[in-house]
Amino acid sequence: MNVKDRLLLSGRNLLGSLSRDDGYLPYWHMAVDGELGAMYQFRPYCTGHNVGRWWNTMLRLERAAGFEIPVEVEAAMLENSRRLSNNASGIFLQDVDPRDPATWYIHSYRETMLSLGLLVECRGSQRAAEWGHRAIEGMSRASRDLMEWRFSFDGGPERAKHGNGAAPAYTHGRAIEGLLSFHAATREPAALEEAERLADFHFGHLVNADGSLAGGCGHHTHSYLNTLRGLLMLAVLKGSHERQELIYKTYREAVSGMITRSGFVTHDIGDRYGGDVASAGDIAHVALLLWDLFADPGLLDDAERIARARLFPAQVREPVPIRPAEAAGSRDCYRDLPNRFVGAIGGSVGHVSGQTCVTDFTAAALHSLIELWTRTVDVEGEIVRVNFHFDRELPEVGVQAERDENGGRVTVVNRTGKELRLRFPGWADEGTCSVTVDGRPVEATVAKGFVVVAQGEGATTSELCFAVPEYEEEELSRDRSAEEETVTFRWRGDEIADVSSGGPYMEPHPALCRSLL
Question: What is the CATH number of the domain that holds 204?
């Protein structure tokens, strides 16, 4: 599976999500009406969120896959970052009205800190380090009481922000991950201290000892999962095995109950409808991080199944039949829309179909896919371990993975001479497993989810083959327009081949996406 090209395709979508008419600020989404009239739009007060989203994902894509960010775009985005962070909070905010808390989109704390950490790491940016330090000061001061945010954006008396837009997980919980990223790049003590302060609060509010969904989970699935990821990362950094176990238990209970086997998870916790592809990606990434700690092979099965059954199918790979909603003229928001939709990853994609082009969602899903792809193969100590059946080329190891009507094949060119471990999916029949080394059959035994293959000196080529079973599974329908109470998915291994109704599965067709105007 050629994942690199898929990642680069979404990178081009994110490049196309910037408005040439507005200093390359990122649009919020492409609105699409019932007659397939479309236009790119900004969401009031929320553009700063996507500035952080864009940097975070594009710098990761550059580092992992060599994506080239045009010089003029980078310069404009740096200026956007400087301008939007120049406020009392220090995070990327747009059009703040000091008297109206509804305009304070402090949900963007995480994205600001992630992006500034990467600008320090990837660009050596001293300005980004200074901006990040200022953001930590501003946001920690405003959240002295972690159940309330209080700001003064005009030098006058502080005003409080309440409601879902100020909820703990939705604002500072999700930011733990960003603070850790910034600390890793800068060694800034204040970043780690703030992450620890927030983590102590959220371990008391966001998780239960038995792993069940806690009352402090909030309303927003993506923020809940971001918070869990940050809590796990900090537990690893501090060597807290008790907290690591607690997140693992929460994954097995609360998180696993949020997502269907086909990868559908709702945008809002507890809802039946309204999918969120970003949250599916979060779960896949958390599964990978937990595997590093607990070596449960089912976690890698979860991560790859979510990628193959939900994230990749939700990516739009060809122009869609949309047109400018009105006479285009020279405005960027109407320019080349069918092609600029290409590379979008689902957004609020339905259970079976219906893609949207939303900058925030594409960036979040792409971030998760990058994390999985870069861990396709690990070279560590005396072991080469293939975790995922994706194509990947490294100086020491090359991996090619194929699935067709004849089954699955993973071919590895190992130039290290180190022992090779090939992941064998839990859904496959071990009796169909066969391995060759340089064309010669060798004994294949599966242990803890991997086939261990001895290697000779110099480069060797090993091939793992296995049958890919077909089977059906029924799920409660999660689309409002569904005519049936349930939908049946036909699976081939960890990929969806067909669906009983509402299909074809993830057919590339734009869903209605309401206008923000």
Answer: 1.50.10.20
